[in-house]
Amino acid sequence: MTHYLDFEKPIAELEGKIEELKRLTGDANFNIADEVAKLQSKVDKQVRAAYAKLTPWQKVQVARHPERPHFVDYAAGLIEDFMPLAGDRLFADDKAIQGGIGRFRGRSVVVMGHEKGSDTESRIRHNFGMARPEGYRKAQRLMELAERFKLPVVALVDTAGAYPGIDAEARGQAEAIARAIEICLKIKVPFVATVIGEGGSGGAIAIAAANRVLMLEHAIYSVISPEGCASILWRSAEHAQTAADALKLTAQDLFKLGVVDRVVPEPLGGAHRDPKSAVLALGDALEAALGELDGQDGAALRARRREKFVEMGRKGL
Questions:
Q1: What does the alpha-carbon distance between residue 83 and residue 80 come to, in Å, rounded to a whole number?
Q2: How far apart are CA 313 and CA 186, in angstroms?
Q3: Within 13 Å, how many C-alpha atoms sit on residue 81's CB side?
Q4: Nearest C-alpha neighbor of 225 from the set 113, 64, 69
Q5: Dihedral sign from CA coordinates of 110, 78, 264, 246
Q6: Mind listing the pLDDT tens digit for each residue in 85-100?
Q7: What residues of the chain score a pLDDT lower than 70?
Q8: Sign, Cα dihedral of 172, 177, 180, 185
Q9: Shortest CA distance to 298 belongs to which of 151, 178, 156?
C-alpha cells in the first residue's frame, strides 16, 4: 500500500481513481485506457507542481518517507560481490551501520552507511538507523581497512542521529563519534559521502567528513532535527515547521552554503516513487565524484579534505 504524505493528498485521490478504473479492465464493453491516460497526465502535473515548490518541512517529510530507498537498496543496486563485514572487534555488531567490501562499476571499494530498515521487524533490528558506539567503531575499522588496502571509501548517510540511550552513553558514544570523524580526516584514500535521506547531527558527520559530500535532492542535513530544535527554543515540538525553515537543512541551502559539493537530482516525485532510477542516478554521481579523485596523492587527498572542513569554519557556517 502506497504511503502518501500530507501534501500529496490530491495526488492520492487521482491515483486512487486510476486504480479503481484498472479493476474494470475485465469489462470488454468498457474501454478505460483513454480515461486512465488523462488521469495519469493529471497525476504527473500534480506531482511536478507539488515537488517544484516543497517547503523545508515538506523536504523533511520526503527525506523520512518509509518507502525511500535505504542503504541495503543502494548496496544491492550498485555494489557487486558485496562482502559484509560485522562487528567492532571490541563489544558487538551494531546493525544500524552496515558496511563491507565490494566492486562498484569496476573498482574495489569499501562501502558503509546507516540502515533504517523497511518494516517493523527490520527497523527494530537496525534501531531505526541510530547507531551505538560499536557502530561508529565498526565504521572506524572499515575506514582503516580501506586505507590499509588503498581502497576508496563510499559512505551513505541516513540517520536521525546517534542513539541517545544510557547504554550508548555508558560505552562512550561521544568518544566513538569523535574518533570516527578523526579517522575520516586522517585516511589517505578517496572518500565520497552521500546524504541519501536524513543527516542528523554527529551521528551523520561521523561517516561524512569526506573529500566529496553529495546530497540527494530531497535529503536533509542538520545539526539537530526540527523537532529537537523546536523543543529547545519553544519548549514544544509543534514549532518544528518554523525550526525547519530556520535550520537551512535542505540540499539546495547547503549547496549554496558550501557544506555539500553536489545535489543529486531525484526522480519526479522523490526517490520513493522510482527507487531504481534513484539508485542509478546516485551511482552516476558517485562514479563522477570518485573519478575526480582518481590518481591524486594520498597525502594531498587528506590535506584537501581537512582544509575543506576548516574552510567551513572560516566562513562562519
A1: 9
A2: 18
A3: 10
A4: 64
A5: negative
A6: 999 999 999 999 999 9
A7: 1, 24-31, 315-317
A8: negative
A9: 151
